């Protein structure tokens, strides 16, 4: 098989070694006479794999015992509801940084459940920039401050994070988790869908500071209650078994390739190749503030939409998939998640230069 060059934003490219491991073990897991996806989540075979997965997750991100880690279903999107349900207390506000599609969706859901305050709204700059982390201060009666570390559609990424003092900080890291070291201690909760940088769709990772659970609203239904999930270590109901298994293999791959520091090195190198190509010609334009350029999702524009369409079509003929920008913003976008080989970024840069020579 000739593998396509996969720049999809999610679901997205996986390490080929992991796909091969999944294939080799799909029918029979470790000589145990059945597949991992046929085994009960209450049995030893799943549980030992799950424990290893969580241990590796903690090790690679340096997560202390003050936090619980587990996986839920429902996508990152379910968290847009669960967070305000659990933590937006009556008589207080929640601060949201409106930084683009994903943070805004979370904020819009929170508004239906309580009072929301906007410290920042990127609307005026069309969501191409972010506030200075050092300037961000939560409001006096804030239940939590919420941000999205990497706007997957807008292509902007926080380079460092605000210090919110005693106000809990909550972050959606769906599209840049494990792409760089993170000081988890700055946050009270970090979550994200695994389908960008960690595995197949179906699981959402939750990193929950135990002390945040003391500030929870009461009277929550079972699945909506983070305290219950913490108590049951994510096994209150059937977890997304296949997705978790694949995440464990991806984490092993990340560890083998230098951990979060190794991933950061790759991300700096890969995104640097594309930004250099974009910056070195007036034919390509990056619409985002250079200070906050994402290393995962590189958005760029050509002189007109006809050329952009032609670019996507010609790229596809050369086996390069997923370069069309999100339907809500148009333009072009290349997602360079951890598993995308550097060669595929070099190939895209070459294709861009060639396309400019022919059409510029
Ligand atoms: C993809 C994405 C989501 C939504 O994830 P689902 O699993 O589809 O609900 C949320 N936030 C960010 C930053 C994303 O990239």
Tally of structural domains: 2
For the record, the CATH class of the largest domain is: Alpha Beta
Order of helices and strands: EHHEHEHEEEEEEEHHHEHEEH
Quaternary state of the chains: single chain
Structural class: alpha/beta
Cα-atom radius of gyration: 21 Å
Q: Describe the main β-sheet briefly.
A: 7 strands, mixed
CATH topology of the largest domain, by name, is Aspartate Aminotransferase, domain 2
Which ligands, by name, code or SMILES, are bound? pyridoxal-5'-phosphate
Counted beta strands: 13
Helical segment count: 9
Outline: globular
CATH architecture of the largest domain: 3-Layer(aba) Sandwich
Overview of this protein structure:
The protein is α/β, with parallel strands linked by helices and 360 residues long. It folds into two domains: 16-256, 3-Layer(aba) Sandwich (Aspartate Aminotransferase, domain 2), CATH 3.40.640.10; 259-359, Alpha-Beta Complex (Aspartate Aminotransferase, domain 1), CATH 3.90.1150. It is 35% helix and 16% strand. The chain is built from nine helices and 13 strands. The strands form four sheets. It has a seven-stranded mixed β-sheet with strand order 2-10-9-8-5-3-4, with helices on both faces. A two-stranded parallel sheet has the order 1-12. Strand 6 (150-151) and strand 7 form a beta hairpin. The radius of gyration is 21 Å and the shape is globular. The structure holds pyridoxal-5'-phosphate. The site of pyridoxal-5'-phosphate has 12 residues, from helix 3. Pyridoxal-5'-phosphate binds at residues 10, 75-77, 102, 148, 152, 172, 174-175, 193, 196.
């Amino acid at each position: 098989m000739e593998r396509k060059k996969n720049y999809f934003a999610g679901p997205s490219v996986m390490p080929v070694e992991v796909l091969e491991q999944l294939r080799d073990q799909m029918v029979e897991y470790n000589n145990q006479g059945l597949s991992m996806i046929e085994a009960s989540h209450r049995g030893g075979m799943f549980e030992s794999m799950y424990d290893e997965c969580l241990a590796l997750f903690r090790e690679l991100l340096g997560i202390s015992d003050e936090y619980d880690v587990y996986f839920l279903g429902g996508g990152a999107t379910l968290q847009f509801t669960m967070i305000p349900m659990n933590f937006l207390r009556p008589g207080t506000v929640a601060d949201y940084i409106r930084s683009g599609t994903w943070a805004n969706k979370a904020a819009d859901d929170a508004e239906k459940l309580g009072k929301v305050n906007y410290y920042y709204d990127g609307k005026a700059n069309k969501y191409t920039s972010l506030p200075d982390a050092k300037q961000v201060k939560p409001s006096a009666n804030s239940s939590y401050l919420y941000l999205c570390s990497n706007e997957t559609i807008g292509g902007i990424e926080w380079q460092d994070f605000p210090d919110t003092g005693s106000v809990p900080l909550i972050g959606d890291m769906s599209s840049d988790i494990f792409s760089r070291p993170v000081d988890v201690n700055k946050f009270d909760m970090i979550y994200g869908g695994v389908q960008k940088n960690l595995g197949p769709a179906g699981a959402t990772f939750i990193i929950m500071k135990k002390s945040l659970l003391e500030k929870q609203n009461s009277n929550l239904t079972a699945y909506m209650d983070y305290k219950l999930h913490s108590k049951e270590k994510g096994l209150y109901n059937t977890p997304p078994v296949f997705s978790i298994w694949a995440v464990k293999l991806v984490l092993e791959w990340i560890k083998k390739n230098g951990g979060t520091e190794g991933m950061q090195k790759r991300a700096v190198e890969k995104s640097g190749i594309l930004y250099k190509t974009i910056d070195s010609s007036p034919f390509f334009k990056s619409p985002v503030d250079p200070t906050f350029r994402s290393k995962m999702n590189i958005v760029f524009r050509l002189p007109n939409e006809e050329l952009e369409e032609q670019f996507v079509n010609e790229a596809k003929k050369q086996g390069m998939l997923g370069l069309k920008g999100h339907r809500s913003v148009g333009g072009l976008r290349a997602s360079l998640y951890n598993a995308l080989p550097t060669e595929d970024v070099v190939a895209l840069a070459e294709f861009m230069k060639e396309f400019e020579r022919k059409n510029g």
